[in-house]
Amino acid sequence: MSSSGSKDLIDSCELHIPIRAGYVILKDPISEKKLLRPARYYGNYVRKIEELIDERKTVDDAESMDGDRYVIIFYGSHDSASKFLESEKMKDLRRKQLAPSSQTLSLPSTSRKESELESTTRKLRSQSRNVSESAHKVAPSSVPQVKLLKDLEIKFESMKDDLKEIKVLLNDFISSQDLPDLSTGPTKEASMAKQACKAIRSFRKQGFEKKLALVDWDKIISDPIKVREIKDILMTQEWPSKMVSDIAEILYGDTLLDHILGRHGKRDRKARRGERQLTVSRSEEEKLRCILSVFGTTFTTDTAWQILVQHYVNQRGRDMKNRLTKEKDEERVDPNIDDDSSDSPEAKRSRLVNHTDDDADNVEE
Questions:
Q1: Please, where are the H alpha helices in the chain?
Q2: Where is the composition biased (Basic and acidic residues) (predicted)?
Q3: Are residues 38 and 229 in contact, defined by beta-carbon separation less than 8 angstroms?
């Protein structure tokens, strides 16, 4: 059953927005951090998003691997979600301004976190010693065993709370440091590309958005929804491998099932048996190069193109092909499909597609 808080959240959402054009706001229940993400990462239907909001189910950030869990607090169009996020940020800022000041607030951010962490750690060590001494001490006959156990229980509960506090402080402290990112991938190029993209995006954000606006999108792709998706990926996806392969899948679609991406329209080597024989044309390849050029030469040098673009795009094509093969295998064994050998292959395929569409309609309903 929905709580009043969940109902208020749902009432503020734009549930009429289709899932492909929808966006959600994620909120970290602990740190109050809020993120704007495409809704398609969290469900195929708006009803699924509504259920996540209603039941306050936690989800991962699909564009990060930090392991934090979030709840969805808003669903709507990109503009509405952006306005909602700005409104929430203003509320957070006002709350911070109204919060009572203390001596620690005058310290620099990093120093304050270090001080809090050190203080809490000292407290935990002291309590740990007390618990250890109490556990090994024989209770005097005048003190009931029950009282001793009760004291130990209270101290352990206090230690648990302190451990939670230390975890929050550690995460906060680490996030405030400019540490090198060691989780960017197996190659030096991937790490460098991630840092380059981050720098280009963060340096005058408005300038980067203007750079996206200068791209002649009409010559690349005519569907405005797909253009919006690609722009969103370029602005928010921090992992080069996922960014490149997601854009390629939107741009090329099913072409990746039987084509591979080469360099300047040519493949690096002769196709082996069982491999895709066709190559994405040079003109189509140039479209992807044009999109990625918003990051300068980060992806377009020969070495970067081979390691960061060809590799990941062609892997995405293999993944798509494997998924399609698996789906076809599942359709063949579906007991609801008649195995009439007199039908032509085209008729069988048509019946399989219609059957799949009917199932999808039933789920939607």
A1: 4-11, 46-54, 78-98, 109-136, 145-175, 188-202, 205-213, 217-220, 224-236, 240-252, 282-292, 302-304, 311-332, 345-364
A2: 111-121, 323-335, 345-357
A3: yes
* 259 and 318 housed in the same domain: yes
Burial class (CB in 10 A: 0-12, 13-18, 19+), 244: buried
Both 195 and 319 in one domain: the answer is yes
Spatial distance between the Cα atoms of 354 and 338, rounded to a whole number of angstroms: 13
Least confident of 118-132, 184-198, 277-291: 118-132
Q: Is 75 strand, coil or helix? A: strand
Is there a domain that residue 202 lies in?
Answer: yes
- The token duo for 63 is 């564009």
Q: Write out the two tokens for 95.
A: 């709350």
- Let me know: does 40 contact 60? Beta carbons within 8 Å: no
Residue 52, token pair as written in the block: 């996540």
Instruction: Catalogue the long-range contacts made by 294-301 (C-beta closer than 8 Å, 24 or more residues apart).
Output: 294/200, 294/208, 294/211, 294/212, 294/215, 294/234, 295/193, 295/196, 295/197, 295/200, 296/196, 296/200, 298/192, 298/193, 298/196, 298/197, 298/200, 299/193, 299/240, 299/244
Q: How far apart are CA 29 and CA 70, in angstroms?
A: 7
Question: Which residue range is the domain that position 137 belongs to?
Answer: 107-175
Q: How many domains does the chain have?
A: 4
Residue 269 in 3-state DSSP? coil
| Percent of the chain clearing pLDDT 70 (strictly above) | 67
pTM, two decimals, is 0.43
CB neighbour class for 291 (10 Å; exposed up to 12, middle 13-18, buried from 19)? buried
Tell me, yes or no, whether 181 lies in a domain.
no
Alpha-carbon distance of 177 to 175, in angstroms, equals 6
Residues 16 and 71 in one domain: yes
> Is 136 within the bounds of a domain?
yes
Q: Helices 240-252 & 224-236, crossing angle to 10 degrees?
A: 170
Dump pLDDT digits (tens) for 174-202: 554 443 343 334 467 788 888 888 888 87
